[in-house]
Structures are given as structure tokens and as C-alpha cells.
Amino acid sequence: MHSTKEKNDHCKDDLLLRMGLNDNKAGMEGLDKEKINKIIMEATKGSKYYGNELKKEKQVNQRIENMMQQKAQITSQQLRKAQLQVDRFAMELEQSRNLNNTIVHVDMDAFYAAVEMRDNPELKDKPIAVGSMSMLSTSNYHARRFGVRAAMPGFIAKRLCPQLIIVPPNFDKYRAVSKEVKEILADYDPNFMAMSLDEAYLNITKHLQERRNWPEDKRKYFVKTENAIENDQPGKEVDKLSEHERPISPLLFEDSPPDLQPPLNYEEQNNPQILQNSVVFGTSAEEVVKEIRFRIQQKTTLTASAGIAPNTMLAKVCSDKNKPNGQYQILPNRQAVMDFIKDLPIRKVSGIGKVTEKMLKALGIVTCTELYQQRALLSLLFSETSWHYFLHISLGLGSTHLARDGERKSMSVERTFSEISKAEEQYILCQELCSELAQDLQKEGLKGRTVTIKLKNVNFEVKTRASTVSSVVSTAEEIFAIAKELLRTEIDTDFPKPLRLRLMGVRISGFPNEEDKKHQQRSIIGFLQTGNQALSATGCILEKTDKDQFVKPLEMSHKKSFFDKKRSERKWSHQDSSKCQTVVKQSLQISQPFQVLKKNMSENLETSDNSDNCQIFTCPVCFREQRSISLEAFNKHVDVCLDRPSIRENSKMFSSSNASSTEVSLKENTNHSFSLCEKQHYETHQENVEITSVDCMNLEETRNNSSKAESVDSLRNEYSKEECSRLPSKSCIISLENEDAELLSRQEPLQPCIYQVTAGQALVCPVCNLEQKTSDLTLFNVHVDVCLNKGIIQELKNDKVQSLNQPKDSSRSTGNSSRVQKTVARTKRLGLTAKYSASKKIKPNNPRHTLDIFFK
DNA sequence: GCGGATCAC
DNA sequence: TATGGTGATCCGC
To answer: Is strand C within 7 Å of residue A20 (CB)?
Structure first.
């Protein structure tokens, strides 16, 4: 937690900068700045961490050098022109300046540390920090005198302050306290914006209006004054470092000028046991914020600091001004704003970090005034986004409304550990992270298309590798299937040197937005038919245990434990049990005739997880509830519904849509979606040619209206061709039946159909030609996507056109063989892209399971 | 879309 | 002994 991140003086050393040393009052206790810096340097010098810091510093210096060179080439003519342009923009900004809002930034003082001190009196008067020997989240003000800061490793902090007590964090507790605080904040702005557990913005404009007419009673609060030894005089300077050591007192605002002290009425209350006093707050913004802070302290025994200003940028800076336990206001007039901004170091502004500060400093810019003076130059050296931002700051402008939280854009897990160099362990780790991520995803019901892995080696060098697949994924297995390949590539790249990792992370992004969801309507589905032995009742179950994907925990149990072996084992057993569930589901599925349920996402369906025989399904077409005894009956109903004209019309969109041609939009005006499946054959007969040129052409015609995705597909297909030629292969051909291809090419309405699985063989990836030990179509799809992506990457890496050699043993029809080959891949993609998913094992009487089938 | 960087908390 | 985890954004490919 860096809420109290002290943006500091301009240390020469970045490292010290990061440690955030400042305003150390070299009092009786504590250390002076030089001593602190010396200790930190001794502790850090020679470490790999420091080595990397130096390296990064060099990069930044290089950036600065480049910038300076650019600057040197700027002509005065250019500068004059820029000046005009920038000033025109500045004028517009000035005209749109909005001083009508009252924004408050509330920031709890040394939050985690304060909570710990409150709950453990032993810690009072002692320097403490919350965190671990590796990293501190926050420290109390006592510890700060020794230079102990947030984001500092505990072992260094200990050298600075041997008496330091490091308390492990209790996030549940902080959350609970935070909730209490938020309840108070909501009284002043129900739409307040929480930035973290200890920080929030409020827009109290409306509250202020209403409050003007409030009677005194509504602004009166009672004060507990046990222990009320009042030695604080209004206006008296108090030792702010002991904010938590004072008894609760109505005189909370010792930092305020006397005339701003809340009027105190020491009325006796009815309750004879507790002596209570009351305090009435005024109607001004300042009073409101005092009231807020007062209530926070009454409720939690913790203090908060706050800033009041016409916009968020200024409010944030203000809240830091009189910290701890203080507040500051910038009055809502332009002059007040400009006066405040004048000497403000840019580093104080949220968004200006260490690097930006350094770059601007190289241009002689430290304060906002200088930032404004150099505006023309900045517009020539920085991106538009950046110089616009700079201009806003230098004019004291900022957001005047609190944007409500948008939808999340990514979700990730990452972990640091002591070195792991063995590939097997890295895969296990990766899988574990994927599982965690999948769990988190499930909590929010999210699915994404891009998986990114993050690797940090023991030299602290960070790498990220991403892969985007054609449809959303969310399960641990799906994510791992992608992440694993990314990891494998990295391992292979360095082979035979091992990756010496200290951190690994997995992130997922590319969540469909609302618009996507509308179009998300699942498309034509169903496609593959899988191998008979794989699906023959029990056979597939064992197949499924792909030892590549599910490395047994045993294999690592004797090795160096990374995080916590027990935790790891727990996870594994959990995973095993979920695998068992899969097995059960799969068995059930197999015992059923292979039908795919067409359904919607209606909540009631999703949440009813009972095993009643008679289920209520909502038809995705007519949206009427269907009381069906069986899925078959329900399917029938849907089929009937689908055969109605409206659907036929809608389904024409299939061929005219610009989106992926495999996507069908149905009932676009609703949130409901459903899937169709298409009866298809997936032939895996060796040396069998199942696609005729004619079919391919037809199919291609129908797809020609797509644009970018199309070319990517072509690229991919090129690769797949090349792959095919390289790999010894049992060839794997996928075909659409003639009538299906014709159907597509003629743009006929789609007929609903039943997904049929018949006897077949194990799935063979059409790209790498390797048999996939899975019967899970989703996983299989993911594999193919990954394979295709790899192909592109490889091609780009090679940076050369691959030869068009035909695979010696690949099946082909007559005529333009490369074209045919290409189309084969295309055909495969068509089917593969449509994510039907018989992937999830269907448990017919469990609606949740059946839902999962379509909406992954 | 990818990867490196920067920033906040 | 030992320098975090999560999420967002931007920029230059």
C-alpha cells in the first residue's frame, strides 16, 4: 500500500527514490537522511535486484538522451508553431474549466499499520510495519522516522530500524475496517469511488446543496469522551506522529485554524454511564470533511486525511498536504487553484512517476509552473496523450466527476518464489496459477480470449508472452493449454539453458464487451466427431489424463518446495476431485444419446443446481419457460421454435455478417443467446481425401467478405501447410459434407440440428498433425488455436516465406494442391472456430452443466 | 495484437 | 536469505 507514498526530493539514486525518503525530521529518535541512504545502499549494493535497477536506469537515461537529441533538432519555427497550437488548446481547456464540483479525496493514515496498532496495544509507541521480511506494505509514522517505508523490503527496514516490528498483513481485517469507513462515505456520496481499501474520492456537491437546509440536529454527533484529558488547545501544534496514541477526543482537528474548529456543545446526555458530548458541524465543504473524518475516527478509532478541491487531481494532492490526520482545501476559484499549482512539484501529481519526473527534470521542469512554461516544447517531444495530460496538470485541471468503475479488462495471478529452473516444476507452477486464475474468473463469471504469461528471471528481467485465441476461454484446462505452449516456447528458446525463474504470472484479458456479448450468440456449432475408442464409455476417461497437461504432484513432491507444499497438495487433491467430476459428467454424457441442448443464459437456469427430474428451461428462441422432463423434449421444442420464419430471417445474417462467418446473430436485441450445432463429419481416416476442390471453393466464397481475420487466417493456413510438410504425419482431414458446404455457400437458413458423435478416432491437430490426448473438444480447439498462433510467430521470426512444398504424405485432391491444402486448413478452422463444445461433460439433469456447454 | 514500460495502490 | 501482486494504460511496433 503506497497511499502514503512520499514523493520525495530528487535523489540522484533511483533506488533511494523508490524507497521514498523524505522529510525526515532528524529528531532525537530516527535517522537522518544521509545515514538512511547509506544503510540502504549497503544493503542493496551488489544484489541482482540492484543490478537490474542499474540496467533500467541506463535505459531511462538512454531515453532521455534520445529526447534531448530530438529537442536539439527542433527549430524555433517549429516551436513557434507548436506554441500557437498548444495555446489554442490551452484556451479551450481554460474555457471548459469547471469549478462547480466539490471533490474530496479521503485517505486513511498509514492504514494497515494503524489497524494493527489499534488492535494490539503492545505495538503502541513502537515502530511497526505491515508486511514481511521481503516486502513491506506500510509503516507507521514512528518507523518512518527511521526511513522505513512502504515498498521497502523488510530486511532492509530492519537494518534501518532494528527495533522494527514487522506484522504480517490481515487483509480480512483491513477489508472489514474499510467497509466501515465506506459506509460513512456513502452518506455523503453514494457514488463515491473507492481506489483501494484506504482511499476514496467523493463528489459532495450534491450533499452540500442538500445540507444547506439541514437543521443543526442533522449535523450533530455525539462524542465519547472517556479519558478526555484535554491538553490540546485549539490551534496548538500537536505531535502528529502520535495520532493513535491520543485518547478519542472531540478536538480532532488540531491542525485547523481555531475558527474552523467545530463548535462543541458539552451537553450531558441521557445515558449516565458514558459521558457524551455532542459536536455540531457546519455546512461548508470544510465542515463536511471534518465531519467525515470525525465519524471515521469515532467508528474505527483511526484517522484519515482529506483533500477538498474542484477536481480529483487537485483533491488528491491536497489530501497529502496535511497528512496525517489533517485536511486541506483549495477554494473553487481559479486564482486559488493557480496559487496552489504554482510551486507544486509535478511529482506530487498522480500519474507522474519516477521516470516521467526524471525525463521532465532533464528539460528543466520540476514544478507545475515550469511545466506550463515548456508546454510548446513538450507538445513536440511527447505524444499527444502525454502533452495533453501535462497541460491539464499545469492548468490545475482534472476530472470533475467520478467515473464509475468500468468493466474489468484483465485478471491475473502471479507469484514470486525462490529460483525454479526445472521445466517440469515450471509447468506445474504454471498450471497451478491457471487453476487459481480460473477460480477467480469463475467468481466473476468472466471468460477471455487472450492469455498472457509473465516470467521474471533471477536477474529480475521481466518477459511477457501472449496468445489470443478465437473464442473465449475460462477453465483452468483451457487457460493452461495456452499458457503451457507459451511457456514451452520460452523454455525451448533458451534450451539447453534452463529458465531460471523467480516469478511467474498468468493473465487473461480480451473479455467480450457488451457489444460483443450481443453478438456473442453462439454460432454454428458442432462439428467434430471424435474417436471411438476415446469416447467409448470408459476409454476416454483415461485418455483425458494427459500426463502432459496434468503433471502429478508426486513428481515434484520430493523437490524443493516452492510456495507451500501443503497448499500445493491441497490444490492438487482439489484438482483431482474436479477431474473426477469431469469423469462422472463424461460418463453420464456418454450414457445419453449425444444431444446438445440449446439453451439460453437465463439466471434461473444457471443458478438452479438441483437434480430434479423435471426442469424448467427457458427456450432461447421464444423465451418461454419450458417444463420438460428431458432434454430431448426441450430440444424438440427449441427445434420447433427455430423452424419459425423469424429465425430463418435472422440466420441469414450468418452469411452477410462481417464478423467471423461462423458466428450467427440471433435475437440480437436480447441478451439471450444460444447455440446451434451443425451436423458434421470429422473424418480422420488416414490417407483419405475428403474435401474436393469444389467444396473448398464454395466454402471460401462464403467467407470472402471477412476482412482482417481473414488475412490472419490465411497466414495461419500458410503456416499449417508448412507444418504439415515438415512433420511426419498421419494425415488428418476434416471435411464438411458436401451438402453442408453447399448449404453454407448458398447462404441458406441454417437448420437446427443435433450434435452427433459417432465412432471415430482420437483428435489429431490439423496444424501440427499430432494426435491430441484429449477428448475434450474445447481443449482440442485451444490446442489448434495455439498451434496456429505459434505458426505465425514462427513465421515472423523466420522472416522468410515458407516454401510451398507439399507434404509428401498429406492427402490432396487433384488440381492446385496448395490451394486445396490451404482450404483444408480453412475448412478446419471454420469448424474449429465454432465452439460448440461438447467439451464440458454434460450432466443432463444439472442445468449448470448444460449451460456451460454453450456459454464458456 | 504483442511486448516492454510506467504508474498507482 | 531476502526487493510484491493486481490492474490499467501507453507506445512503438
So the answer is: no
For A195-199, A326-330, A545-549, A838-842, which range has the lowest pLDDT when averaged over its residues? A838-842
Quote the pLDDT of residue A467: 98
User: Strand A615-618 relative to strand A410-420: parallel, antiparallel, unpaired?
Assistant: unpaired
Give the pLDDT band (50/70/90) at residue A444: very high
Protein-covered nucleotides of chain B (CB closer than 7 Å) are 1-9
Type of residue found at A732: C
Residue with cell 537494518: A159
Burial A781-807 (b: 16+ CB within 10 A, else e): bbbbbbbbbbbeeebeeeeeebeeeeb
Q: How far is CA A470 from CA A509, A611, A659, A788, in A?
A: 13, 34, 12, 11
pLDDT category at A238 given cuts 50, 70, 90 is very low
Question: How far, in Å, CA of A474 to CA of A449, rounded?
Answer: 9
Nucleotides of C under 7 A from a protein CB: 1-12
**Phi, psi angles (nearest 5°) of residue A682:** -120, 100
For residues A498 and A431, what is the distance between their CA atoms, to the nearest angstrom? Answer: 18
Residue nearest to nucleotide C10 (CA to C1'): A385
Count of CB atoms within 10 A of residue A121's CB? 8
CA dist., res. A144 & res. A60, Å (int)? 29
**Does residue A496 have a cis bond before it (omega within 30 degrees)?**
yes
Question: In the predicted model, what is the mean pLDDT of chain A?
Answer: 67
| Contact assessment for residue A250 and residue A225, using Cβ atoms and an 8 Å cutoff | yes
Q: Indicate yes or no: pTM above 0.85.
A: no
- Surface-to-core class of residue A398, CB atoms within 10 Å of its CB (0-12 exposed, 13-18 middle, 19+ buried): buried
Spatial distance from the CA of A638 to the C1' of B1 (Å): 38
Per the structure, the residue whose CA is closest to nucleotide C5 at C1' is A414
Strands A625-628, A462-473: pairing kind: unpaired
